[in-house]
Automatic annotation (TrEMBL):
Localization in the cell: Cell membrane
Name of the molecule in the record: Solute carrier organic anion transporter family member
Transmembrane segments: 6-27, 39-60, 80-102, 114-133, 255-279, 291-312, 344-366
Taxonomic placement: Eukaryota, Metazoa, Chordata, Cephalochordata, Leptocardii
Cellular compartments per GO CC: basolateral plasma membrane
Stored InterPro entries: Kazal_dom, Kazal_dom_sf, MFS_trans_sf, OATP
Family per record: Belongs to the organo anion transporter (TC 2.A.60) family.
Gene designation: LOC118404495
Residue intervals of the Kazal-like domain: 158-208
Major location category of this protein: membrane
Record membrane topology: Multi-pass membrane protein
GO biological process terms, semicolon-separated: monoatomic ion transport; sodium-independent organic anion transport
Length: 445
C-alpha cells in the first residue's frame, strides 16, 4: 500500500512505460502486447528473472549489515569483503554461462533446462547458509541480566538500570558499547558503573579507553587455603572489574565458510543469466524482441529493483532488539539485532524468492517441452503424408530431428540412415506453420 501511494515510485514506473512505448514499441502495440501476454514461455522466464533480481538486489544490499551484526566486523571491512566476494563470482558466473551455451550449442529448450539446473543448485547452496552464523552477543540488561539482577525477563523491555548503576543517572540516547572483563558487553561505561578511565594504544594505532573500578562488572577471585592435608581453592565473586571500548569479540569462526558459500551461490546464480536471456529473445518473434526486453525492464524496476530493498529492510527490522530512541518517541536506527533471528529471516526470504524462481523456470521448461512435442508431432504427420509433396520417407531411416532455425527462418529436418549417413531437408512444406511466440524447438524421436 505504501508503494501505491509513493509518488516518486509511481513517477519512475510511468517514465519507464513511456520510454518503452515511445522508443521500442512496434507499430501495432495492442497486437504486440496481446502476443506477449499469451506467450507462456516469455511470461514465465520474465517472472523467473524478476524473482532472481529481487534476491540479488535485496540480498546484496544487506550483506554488509549482515556481516557487521553476525560476525562483528567493522563497516569498512564488511563492504570490502562484500565487493571482493560478489564481483568476481558474478563476473565468473556470467562468463561460464556464456561459454557453456556456446560450447554445448544449446537450443531454446536446452537453455531453459540449464537455467532450471542452475536455479535448483543455487537454492540448495543457499539453504546451507542457514547453518553458518554466530550467536547474539551478551549485552547486560538486554540479553542477559546484570549480576545483581536475578529476576530477569528476556521478554520484558530492556532494563539497563540496575542497583549497581542506579545512582549514575545514565542516558540511553547514545550507544557506546564497552566490553567487560567478565565477557559481557555493556551499553556504555556509565551503565557498567565505572568510576575511572585511562587511555592506551590498541594494536599500535587505535586509541581505546580502559575504564576501571566498574561496580557492575563481576570479578571472580580465587583464594587458596592450605591445611596440613589438603589445599582448598575458594572462588569469590566481587565487583570492580574493568571494561574497554568496543563490543566483546565473538568467539565464532564461521566467517570464512560463509564467504565461501556466498561465492558459490553468487557464481551459480549468475551462470543462468545468459541462458535466461537467450530464452527471452528466442521465445518471441524477431520484430517483438525490443518491445519484449522493454516490458521486462519495466517489470524488473516495478517488482525487483525498487521494492526488494524495501521489504528486505522491513523484514530484517523485525529482528532488531535495541532501537535508537528519538526525541519525538519514534525509533531511529537499529543498534543491535538478534543474530539468529536475523539469519533465518534474511536467508528465509531469499530462499522463498529463489523457490519461486525455480517454479517459474520449471514452468518455462515444461511449456517449451510441451509446445515442442506438439509441433514435432504435427511435423511428423506432414512428413509422412505423400500429399504434401515431400520426398522424405521413414524407410531406411533410424531417426530424425525436426527443428526451426531462427537465423535462417526455415525448418530443417535431419535424417540419420541405417548406414550412418546424415542428410538434411529444409523445405518449408515439411513442417506446419509456427505458432506465434514459438520460434525454436527441437525434439528427438
Amino acid at each position: 500500500m505504501s508503494l501505491c501511494t509513493n509518488v516518486p515510485y509511481l513517477c519512475i514506473i510511468l517514465i519507464d512505460c513511456l520510454f518503452v512505448c515511445l522508443f521500442v514499441c512496434p507499430t501495432d502495440i495492442p497486437h504486440a502486447v496481446m502476443s506477449l501476454c499469451t506467450n507462456v514461455p516469455y511470461l514465465c522466464i520474465s517472472l523467473c528473472a524478476t524473482m532472481e533480481l529481487s534476491v540479488v538486489t535485496g540480498f546484496i544490499t544487506f550483506v554488509p549489515k549482515f556481516l557487521e551484526s553476525q560476525f562483528g566486523v567493522s563497516a569498512s571491512e564488511a563492504n570490502l569483503l562484500t565487493g571482493v566476494v560478489i564481483i568476481p563470482s558474478a563476473g565468473g558466473g556470467i562468463l561460464l554461462g556464456g561459454y557453456i551455451m556456446n560450447r554445448l550449442k544449446l537450443d531454446l529448450k536446452g537453455a531453459a533446462q540449464w537455467s532450471l539446473v542452475s536455479a535448483v543448485v543455487s537454492l540448495i547452496c543457499l539453504a546451507t547458509l542457514f547453518t553458518v552464523g554466530c550467536h547474539t552477543i551478551n549485552i547486560g540488561g538486554l540479553t542477559i541480566p546484570y549480576s545483581d539482577s536475578p529476576n530477569f525477563d528476556h521478554q520484558a523491555p530492556s532494563e539497563f538500570t540496575a542497583n549497581c548503576n542506579l545512582h549514575c543517572d545514565c542516558a540511553i540516547h547514545s550507544y557506546s558499547p564497552v566490553c567487560g572483563s567478565d565477557g559481557i558487553t555493556y551499553f556504555s561505561p556509565c551503565h557498567a558503573g565505572c568510576h575511572k578511565v585511562t587511555n592506551f594504544l590498541w594494536d599500535g594505532q587505535t586509541t581505546k579507553y580502559n575504564y576501571t573500578d566498574c561496580s557492575c562488572v563481576a570479578v571472580v577471585s580465587v583464594e587458596t587455603i592450605n591445611t596440613k592435608k589438603y589445599r582448598i581453592e575458594e572462588q569469590k565473586l566481587r565487583y570492580g572489574g574493568h571494561v574497554i571500548t568496543g563490543k566483546c569479540h565473538r568467539d565464532c569462526g564461521t566467517l570464512a565458510p560463509f564467504l565461501v558459500f556466498l561465492f558459490i551461490v553468487t557464481f551459480i546464480t549468475c551462470c543462468a543469466q545468459v541462458p535466461a536471456m537467450m530464452v527471452t529473445l528466442r521465445s518471441v518473434k524477431k520484430e517483438e524482441r525490443p518491445f519484449a526486453l522493454g516490458i521486462q525492464f519495466v517489470l524488473f524496476r516495478t517488482l525487483a529493483y525498487i521494492p526488494a530493498p524495501i521489504y528486505y529492510g522491513a523484514t530484517i527490522d523485525t529482528a532488531c532488539i535495541l532501537w535508537q530512541p528519538l526525541c519525538n518517541g519514534d525509533k531511529g536506527a537499529c543498534w543491535e539485532y538478534d543474530a539468529t533471528r536475523f539469519r533465518f529471516l534474511y536467508f528465509g526470504l531469499s530462499a522463498g524468492l529463489k523457490a519461486m524462481s525455480v517454479l517459474f523456470v520449471f514452468m518455462t521448461w515444461i511449456s517449451l517441452r510441451r509446445a515442442a512435442t506438439e509441433y514435432v508431432e504435427d511435423a511428423e504427420n506432414r512428413n509422412t503424408d505423400p500429399s504434401n509433396g515431400s520426398t522424405f520417407s521413414e524407410e531406411g531411416a533410424v531417426g530424425y530431428d525436426v527443428s526451426y532455425d531462427v537465423s535462417l527462418d526455415e525448418t530443417r529436418t535431419t535424417i540419420l540412415s541405417e548406414d550412418g549417413n546424415i542428410s538434411f531437408q529444409s523445405p518449408r512444406s515439411l513442417c506446419p506453420p509456427l505458432q506465434d511466440g514459438i520460434l525454436a524447438y527441437e525434439s528427438h524421436v
